[in-house]
């Protein structure tokens, strides 16, 4: 069968990538979807069990830092478009090992840009390079205001600095070489298949197993939470409809201080686990703050809503319950990802706090 498009999705075995791959494979049988992922600690093919045998899906294990392998693959496969999500994504790990973030997030992105520029050189306009980025590139807000697409970049962590750098390279390839790029910057995602180093799955797992809940600082930092499937829907709309060279912010209009969010999670968990009122909250433990911890993120996604008609689909309370249910039901998935190296990571990260 010949496909209308052959889309490379990088990082498709990770949290957001697996939701995006699933959406595209199911929604667009006329596209061939090639998922390229190095399967780092965060990549897990079990996230894609339900679609792995579909005839329009294929997996390639490859490291985007390996420039030769990437150019060879691009020449062989002649992808029509790229949606790039592969990244080192956890802020705490970027504080422990910044160089790894430069390698994957900066060098890896430049390798993909070079390979795309080369294979599309005859007809740049016919192909799209979509770069998935984060609101963290904008830095930290005070008590008021929101990030718009024109907010100046001001990254504070090695993670956000590496993502900001990759965004700049993507824009530079649009301006300099005419590569048809699009960038979106999204707020905090939550939902199924998220690796339990990030706040929500980590705390769900700790509550379940009666482990302390390590709240950084005073728990006053604010994040804007978005259902991961709504992010995938936004990427779909932007990929198909946005003008080349454009940027879109994606967010949930759903700001929570960490401590309020954690208390709500504790209530939901008490209910789901049949525990007494207030039992899970007793696990809350204030620990040393994250270095360079951004105070507040909030996304103004009105451009996306106005231009392309996207809005979040789910109320947060409903999404949180669904998320808790998923982690409580998928015990084997959780057991597999929290065995082995995870224990070492956990001790390294939290014992010293
Ligand atoms: P994740 O850590 O769950 O997944 C990252 C994936 O990339 C993994 O499958 C991993 O194996 C793969 N990968 C890492 N290094 C690689 C390399 N060198 N070569 C090939 N594959 C590699 O991350 P996520 O939370 O799903 O984030 C996906 C993207 O979305 C990232 O670019 C991130 O910056 C961005 N983002 C994330 C959020 C969020 O809340 N999680 C919000 C906004 C933007
Ligand atoms: O805003 C988008 C970003 O959201 C993405 O670009 C990142 O890839 C993603 O990891 C996420 O970054 P955060 O640093 O906001 O997410 P994290 O889940 O690590 O932390 C959320 C908040 O909770 C943050 O203020 C730090 C705090 N926290 C986190 C952990 C892991 C704690 O208090 N204790 C913890 O143990």
Major sheet: order of its strands?
A: 3-2-1-4-5-6-10
The total strand number stands at 12
Mean pLDDT across all amino acids: 97
Largest sheet: 7 strands, parallel
Series of secondary-structure elements, N-terminal to C-terminal? EHEEHEHHEHEEHEEHEEHEHHHH
End-to-end C-alpha gap: 56 Å
At the fold tier of CATH, the topology name is: Rossmann fold
Q: Give the number of helices.
A: 12
Low-confidence stretches: none
Name the overall outline: globular
The CATH homologous superfamily is called NAD(P)-binding Rossmann-like Domain
Secondary structural class: alpha/beta
**From the 3D coordinates, which CATH architecture would you assign?**
3-Layer(aba) Sandwich
């Amino acid at each position: 069968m010949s496909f209308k498009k052959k889309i490379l999705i990088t990082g498709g075995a990770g949290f957001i990538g697996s939701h995006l791959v699933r959406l595209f494979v199911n929604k667009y049988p006329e596209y061939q979807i090639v998922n390229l992922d190095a399967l780092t600690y965060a990549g897990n093919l079990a996230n894609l069990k339900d679609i792995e045998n579909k005839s329009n899906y294929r997996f390639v294990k490859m490291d985007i830092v390996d420039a030769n392998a990437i150019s060879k693959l691009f020449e062989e496969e002649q992808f029509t478009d790229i949606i790039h999500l592969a990244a080192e994504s956890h802020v705490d790990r970027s504080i422990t090992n910044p160089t790894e973030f430069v390698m994957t997030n900066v060098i890896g992105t430049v390798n993909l840009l070079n390979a795309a520029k080369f294979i599309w050189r005859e007809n740049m306009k016919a192909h799209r390079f979509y770069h998935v980025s984060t609101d963290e590139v904008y830095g930290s807000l005070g008590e008021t205001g929101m990030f718009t697409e024109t907010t100046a970049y001001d990254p504070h962590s090695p993670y956000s600095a590496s993502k900001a750098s990759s965004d700049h390279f993507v824009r530079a390839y649009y301006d300099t070489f005419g590569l048809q790029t699009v960038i979106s910057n999204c707020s905090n995602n939550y939902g199924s298949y998220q690796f339990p180093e990030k706040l929500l799955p980590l705390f769900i797992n700790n509550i379940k197993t009666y482990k302390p809940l390590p709240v950084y600082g005073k728990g006053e930092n604010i994040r804007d939470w978005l259902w991961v499937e709504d992010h995938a829907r936004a990427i779909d709309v932007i990929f198909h409809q946005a003008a080349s060279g454009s940027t879109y912010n994606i967010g949930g209009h759903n700001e929570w201080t960490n401590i309020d969010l954690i208390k709500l999670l504790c209530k939901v968990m008490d209910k789901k686990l049949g525990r007494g009122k207030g039992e899970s909250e007793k696990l809350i433990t204030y620990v040393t703050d994250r270095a360079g911890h951004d105070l507040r993120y909030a996304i103004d996604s009105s451009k996306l809503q106005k231009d392309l008609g996207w809005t979040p689909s789910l109320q947060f309370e409903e999404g949180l319950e669904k998320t808790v249910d998923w982690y409580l039901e998928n015990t084997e998935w959780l057991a597999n990802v929290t065995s082995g190296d995870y224990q070492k990571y956990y001790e390294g990260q939290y014992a010293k706090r």
